Amino acid sequence: MVWALALVWAIGSMVWVELVRDLYHALAHVWEPLYRLHGWHHRVFKKDLTPFNDQIYRDAQWYNDLPESGVMLLGLSLFWLGARAIDPVAATGGCAVGLAYTLIYVFGAVVRGLGLPWAHDLTDLTHQPGPFEAPPSRWLVNRTYHWRHHFDNQDAYFCGVLSLLDRWMGTALSLKNKTVAVTGASGTLGRALIAQLHRSGAKVIALTSSDRDFTVMLDGEPLDLRTEIWTIGDEAKLASLLEKVDILVINHGMNAHADRSIAAIEASYSVNAFSALRLMETFLQTVRTNRDIARKEVWVNTSEAEVLPAFSPLYELSKRALGDFVTLRRLDAPCVIRKLILGPFKSDLNPVGVMSADRVARRIVRLAKGDARNIIVTIDPLTFVLHPLKEFAVSIYFRWFSQPSARTLPFSEPSEDEAATLQTSNVTNPPAAKP
Questions:
Q1: CB count, 10 Å around CB of 164?
Q2: Cα gap 236→133, rounded to integer Å
Q3: What is the secondary structure of 367-425 as a DSSP string?
Q4: What is the pTM of this model?
Q5: How far apart are CA 270 and CA 350, in angstroms?
Q6: Of 105, 157, 269, 315, which one is the catalytic site residue?
Q7: Which of 187, 198, 221, 227 is nearest to 350 (CA)?
Q8: pLDDT (tens digit per residue) in 377-434
Q9: Each residue's pLDDT tens digit, 30-71
Q10: Which of 195, 267, 281, 417 is exposed most, by the fewest CB atoms within 10 A?
Q11: How many other CB atoms sit within 10 Å of the CB of residue 6?
Q12: Residue 315 catalytic?
């Protein structure tokens, strides 16, 4: 029993010192006296994570990394005192593990500051140069995640090992100055998403397959918005535009309601499933560099219909197919893919919806900033249970009984010929279907 408690205290002490380090880091970006030290860290690296020179790298260890590890030691001391007051026997052994863990950071800062040739490769894992091997991770900070703190937005991505603090503060994804394209822009949710994304500092492009005029209002004023019209079935024509897009929100769709004709079946699958799949794949073909892997994302509105009835059979069938396509593609996607699992909100597609599209959009953006990969917004508590189970089971099934796609990470920089080839999609488009 004592060993079990000691293990709990050990894990708790290590999590605690990581939270202390991340809080110190976040504070250093808002309090000038601390930033005078922390700023050295931001002077060190080029965009490929190689240091500008050895001397500034060594100086940064003494000015930033060693003081930071000293704060971690101080935080551990306070934790140890509190733990001993609660459980003097088990806490002593457990916190000793936390001390050893913290001393690793002190040791790393010292040997890097001394300029020992092996120190950088062995002790500075999130600053290693080279092609990124995976998109930004969810819970444990990898190189791709930390790169964004240096070169995407220094006022976000503060965490060093665990992303807990970023997820809680909403700094695990920054939308500031990102170019975001939203399909279904003329719809109720599309307009609400555009307003919330713009409010978060994004540069939004409205993509619509409708020829009707629409206006997005923000704080009572019409938003000056770039709008592009595209056609279902001609997704490849958006390839050149998507090259410059950081986040693609696939939000368009149709609802045939009670219609079960062949034409309704074809249109539902064409718009809700295959169009979204082609558009997603066209976008993924633009992910080629470290910067693309770190910054680019796809958000796909698959709907609560993935797991619950929507009282519209073709809507359910086509959205479930889309949800499975996304789950399958996630297994070896070159960037982050998020699902939007939304309950019934009031819109043209669902005039009897009970949620406000504006509130749904605010919740989507807030959860995305907290790095939720499956963004569930609904009034039905069953969805919060059923969807994670379904996603886990289907993902395992697809992983066991399918093969990885040919194009996987890491990527090399494309040649001029390859870049020209990637401008067009090789997906065969079926006949267009109008929503």
A1: 15
A2: 27
A3: HHHTT-SEEEE-S-HHHHHHHHHHHHHHHHHHHHHSPPPS--SSPPPPPHHHHHHTTS-
A4: 0.89
A5: 19
A6: 315
A7: 187
A8: 999 999 999 999 999 999 999 999 998 876 544 444 444 443 443 333 333 333 333 3
A9: 999 999 999 999 999 999 999 999 999 999 999 999 999 999
A10: 417
A11: 20
A12: yes
